[in-house]
Amino acid sequence: MSKVIVFDTETTGITEPVLIEAAGIIINGSPFAEQKETFNNRYNPGKPISFGAMATHNILDCDLENCPKAKEFKLPEDTAYLVGHNIDFDWEVIGKPDIRLIDTLPMARKLWPHLDSHNLGALSYALCEESKRHQIREKLINRHSALVDVELCLELLRFILKEKSELKSWGDIWRFSEEARIPDIMPFGKHKGIAIKDLPQDYKEWFLKQGDIDKYLKIALRTK
Known about the structure:
The structure is a single chain. This protein has helices spanning 51-57, 87-93, 104-111, 120-127, 133-141, 146-163, 170-181, 201-208, 215-223; strands at 3-11, 19-28, 38-42, 79-84, 100-103. The chain is α/β, with parallel strands linked by helices. The protein has 2 domains: 3-181, Nucleotidyltransferase, domain 5, CATH 3.30.420.10; 184-224, no CATH class. A 5-stranded mixed sheet has the order 3-2-1-4-5. Helix 3 (104-111) packs across helix 6 (146-163), helix 3 (104-111) crosses helix 7 and helix 4 packs across helix 6 (146-163). It starts with a strand and ends with a helix.
């Protein structure tokens, strides 16, 4: 049976990031299935951790001295989907394996556009019952590994499935994630903030001729 991994990483930093920790929750079967199988492992990146990254995850270079090399990391066999919040970053860190990605970030932005922030912590506070916010606070304050973010991401996915009850399979969820990635608003340039459907046609045509355009922005410019 194909596996779905709710996944997160910690890395050496933003510039040329290398894996130092990988965590996941393995789901076999339905998105609604209860699961217990997890992994949370650290790796030696072979380069120093930036101080900015160190301040975020509190992993020190000396913690990784006896860990396996980062290049030894592999996803479990038969992994069909990788789920995460801004999952492209984690996918790139592990070498861009040939699997489908489900990103909870654009789905959350599509479903709850009124929220002032869509980072994982803010969404966890916003979507839970008020009486449970102290539990979220404890998790966020006491983050000790990437596994905490994986658990929060899985909970966010369950909120998404409650909001979008028509999503019954992993294929349905992947298709919604892909649709949610296609922007409605121009994200940069002289028309930043303008609805893509309202952009001048000649500007769309000019922009599409430029190199290195995000594939989802390209779809929006061609279809909206």
